[in-house]
Each structure stands twice: as structure tokens, then as C-alpha cells.
């Protein structure tokens, strides 16, 4: 099995890794970089638990070979956070994370890192999405706990807050994103 020396910039930190040809980006992040925010679920592109941003676009990191991501900029949910959090326990959360916290958009939390990264991508492209657009965007992110109602409410709350408060923040790379949507990569 061949190996590759690659470099990834993960949440702003440059990381040099040696990976096998078959190594998936999600495993490189979790085991090589030590960022366990992206979760391993189906490993076949169906559940969205592993969603991260690669060069500003939401991707399922189980569907990307680490070697193919060489030189890329990766943002995981660990790299989010800003000045928009309000209230005890939320000061380091960004607008989307804060809304998930407030609206109880999670139960066990396994799907949440991927959900949040998908929502960051949605709101960067569509700051005022309809409920149908929210549900469409999230169709590639499976949650076994919440029934999605609170997740949708969290996205609506985040969108409202971002429209009302210009100081509220999305994750930095999501705000810059100009690529395809998570729904496109999950199709
Ligand atoms: S683990 Fe990547 S989509 Fe399920
Ligand atoms: S909160 Fe448990 S899988 Fe979504």
C-alpha cells in the first residue's frame, strides 16, 4: 500500500501527515490530526456525520481521499466560534451553534458536527432560507434522535439572528464560501 506525505490546513493550523492511498479524509482528521469533531457513521456518503468544509465547500469527508485533499483548507466544527454567542456556556459558539444550543437542536449530538457544517454552508448561500429549503439542504444529514423539528427551528433562529445582527458570525470559511451546497455533494 503506497503512502503519501500531505499537508492540510485544519482550522487554520498547518498539519503535515503521512497517509495511505486508501485513507479517507475523515480518518486523517480524526486519527492523524486528532480532531474528532467529524464523526464516522455510514462511511458511504449517506449520513452526513462526517461533514466538514474543504476549501470553503461542505463535503462528506468519508467520500474524499486524504491524498486528494492535499494542500486543502479544512474547517471542522472545532474551528467555528466567534463573538456572537450570548449567555453562559455559549460565549465561544458562533450563530449557528448558539441557535442549536438554544433551540435544543440536538439530543445525543452525534450528528450535530455535520449538521452544523451543512447549515453554515446553507446560510452562507441563502441567508433567509424557507423551511422547505432548510429541509432540502439537510436531507443528506441523518439524525436518529431529534425528529428534525428543533433542528429546523435552530436554522430559522440562526438565520433570523444573522439578518438582525450584522455582528453575528458564521464560521469564517462559510461566510466566504462560493462553491456548491452540501445538498449537491450529498446527492
Ligand atoms: S460517515 Fe460520511 S456520510 Fe456517513
Ligand atoms: S442528535 Fe442524536 S443523531 Fe442527531
- Provide the CATH topology of the largest domain: DNA polymerase, domain 1
Percentage of residues in DSSP E strands: 5-15%
Biggest β-sheet strands, sense, barrel: 5 strands, mixed
Give every kind of bound small molecule, once each: FE2/S2 (inorganic) cluster
Please count the helical segments: 7
- Which shape, going by the Cα principal axes? globular
How far apart lie the N and C ends?
30 Å
Structural class: alpha+beta
Map the helices and strands.
Elements (H helix, E strand, L loop, with lengths): L2 E8 L2 E8 L4 H9 L17 E4 L2 E4 L12 E3 L19 H8 L9 H14 L5 H7 L11 H16 L7 H5 L5 H5 L1
Parallel strand pairs: 1-5
Antiparallel strand pairs: 1-2, 3-4, 3-5
The structure holds FE2/S2 (inorganic) cluster (FES) (2 copies).
Overview of the molecule:
Keywords: 2Fe-2S, Iron, Iron-sulfur, Metal-binding, Oxidoreductase. One of its GO terms (molecular function) is oxidoreductase activity. Residues 171-187 have a biased composition (Low complexity). The chain is of the alpha+beta class and 187 residues long. It folds into 2 domains: 3-78, Roll (Ubiquitin-like (UB roll)); 80-174, [2Fe-2S]-binding domain (DNA polymerase, domain 1, Orthogonal Bundle), CATH 1.10.150. Helices cover 34% and strands 14% of the residues. It has 7 helices and 5 strands, in the order ββαβββαααααα. The chain has a 5-stranded mixed sheet with strand order 2-1-5-3-4, with helices on both faces. The site of one FE2/S2 (inorganic) cluster has 10 residues, from loops. One FE2/S2 (inorganic) cluster is lined by residues 106-111, 143-146.
